[in-house]
Amino acid sequence: MLRLITNNAGLHDSAKSSEYVDGSSLDVLICVRGLVHSGSIILTHPLCGNLRPNHQPFRSIIVDVKPGYVDLDSLSAIESAVNVYQSAEIIAPKDLDALTRADYAYIDAELMRESLGRYGLIRDERLCDAPSLRVKEV
Amino acid sequence: MKLELHRLKVNGLKLGEKTGFENGILTVNKAEILALISEDPLLGKNIDVDIAMPGESTRIMPVKDVIEPRWKISGKGQVFPGMISDVETVGEGQTLVLSGCAVLTTGKLVRFQEGIIDMSGPGADYTPYSKTCNVVLVLEPSDPNMDKHDYEKACRLAGLKTAAYLAKSCAGCAADSVEVYERPTIREAMNEFPGLPKVGYIYMLQTQGLLHDTYLYGVDVKRILPTLVSPLEVMDGAIVSGNCVSACDKNSTYSHLNNPVIADMLKRHGKDFNFVAVIVTNENVTLADKRRSSSYAAKLAAMLGLDGVVITEEGFGNPDADLIMNCRKCEQLGIKTALLTDEYAGQDGASQSLADSCPEGNACVTAGNANEVIHLPAMSKVIGYAEEANVIAGGWQGSLAEDGSITVELQAITGATSELGYTKLGAYTL
């Protein structure tokens, strides 16, 4: 079963199958690591965008949940990503003012838009559109 | 395939009645540029054209892209194909280049994603665009709630149209210098220089989404399989930046046009190696795409019988995975690799530099640490919006001081750690 794991509330609302992580980008990675341990394949790379990874307040990853199946490539990728994110202080969504937070959330959604579409996970295209994509207050 | 670059050396810039070039001075008719870019209904009424010269106390921010003015005066197609001209292939004939001149686009788009260019002071040392005579477009959308994709495209086209217009306006001028480039067919290249290793260039282009995109003949590169391109097509603007993300290492259109890896490989062709081909590839988001493109690029290199490749990355973080896949897969096919990247090693330089690595990546060149902190003193003039320093990538709340000075990481300076090596600072073999 395909599933989006994200701490981006606007993107969570727009996906057909999604798990919202109320926390930082590192919390998303740790959640995905748990899923990989229990049986999931990572479909989108756990690092995304062009910022220093721990400066990305939002993280969104698509996984294919396959209970009992441990994919070693996914395990390697997520462990490596967790190490990168743990190497410096994390910027959490709550650390940012509303406008900046909305910009980061917007770019996070944009970087996932193509992949969500490809894997048939967009529930409502309008929710991915710029004016309607808003971050929930944190 | 033969291309001549007819260079006019621009030493000065002024606003005036008629756009044209005389005695090293480019005169720019501001009204004509405004009329040209105002044709686009996506751009607002409060757009402006300004100029900035090397050595001036001027800061330009937030910068989206930098473009060198070029115009084809003979040969097939026209510059920036698929963008502002037809999709006909380019790379042959004669192209006029306004050397020393650049068009800069600025204006708010996605606030944290764009860059700073200082025309003097310590920041100027870190960007090659402090040494160009700059025509600056200050842009805004016609509707503040406009879709950011539409506005990004409008900004991109405004810059390209202005660059083409400036060079076209000088098309009758005699060149200060002419460079002639001639490339053999692949069949001919295979038989040339039998004693020299066959070397190629894997040209990674960032393609993750809005402001992380690149276009080849107008095609969004995330939708291609790796393919072959001539270095001469690149010089005619076949590759265009989809605007800026993390200013230090998003390759500007200017740096594509003047790609120093291509320039140096052409210089060393026939001396140190046989420069056979350029393979362009993408940096997509899904792991399946990354695996597909890296396998395909390595396969193309193997099909061409290459002994080695230079690989340049674009961006940081996610693209590190593509860089490493390209490196490992080429090496596993017996093709030696040399990598060109930059580093995000923390402000103290002590953190891991890249987000991924592999033992095969043992020949790696760095363009610098993007996290190094720099203090930029106040400038007399700011073109654009100084307050963006507090949210720009590499800045933080408080980056902009009351006296107008800015403290940021090099990441915020346009082109500071160009992974094509198009930088002002570096180590050179004398």
Secondary-structure map with pairings?
The complex is a heterodimer of chains A (138) and B (430).
Chain A: E1 2-6, H1 9-14, E2 18-20, H2 25-39, E3 40-42, E4 60-65, H3 72-85, H4 98-118
Parallel strand pairs in A: 1-2
Antiparallel strand pairs in A: 1-4, 3-4
Helix pairs in contact in A: 2-3
Chain B: E1 2-9, E2 12-15, E3 20-22, E4 25-28, H1 30-38, E5 48-52, E6 58-67, E7 70-74, E8 93-99, E9 101-106, E10 115-118, E11 133-138, H2 148-168, E12 177-182, H3 186-191, E13 198-206, E14 214-216, E15 219-220, E16 227-229, H4 231-235, E17 239-241, H5 253-257, H6 260-268, E18 274-283, H7 287-303, E19 308-312, H8 318-332, E20 336-343, E21 364-369, E22 373-376, E23 381-384, E24 406-409
Parallel strand pairs in B: 1-8, 2-4, 6-23, 9-11, 13-18, 13-19, 19-20, 20-21
Antiparallel strand pairs in B: 1-12, 3-4, 5-11, 6-9, 6-10, 7-8, 14-15, 14-17, 16-18, 22-24
Helix pairs in contact in B: 7-8
How many strand segments of chain A? Answer: 4
Looking at how many chains there are and whether they match, the oligomeric state comes to heterodimer
Number of DSSP-assigned strands of chain B? 24
The greatest interface here is: A-B, 38 and 43 residues
Shape of chain B: globular
Q: Structurally, how many domains make up the residues of chain B?
A: 1
Summing up helix and strand content along with how strands pair, one would put the structural category of chain B as: alpha/beta
Mean pLDDT level of chain A: 85
Brief digest:
The complex is a heterodimer of chains A (138) and B (430). Chain A has helices at 9-14, 25-39, 72-85, 98-118; strands at residues 2-6, 18-20, 40-42, 60-65.
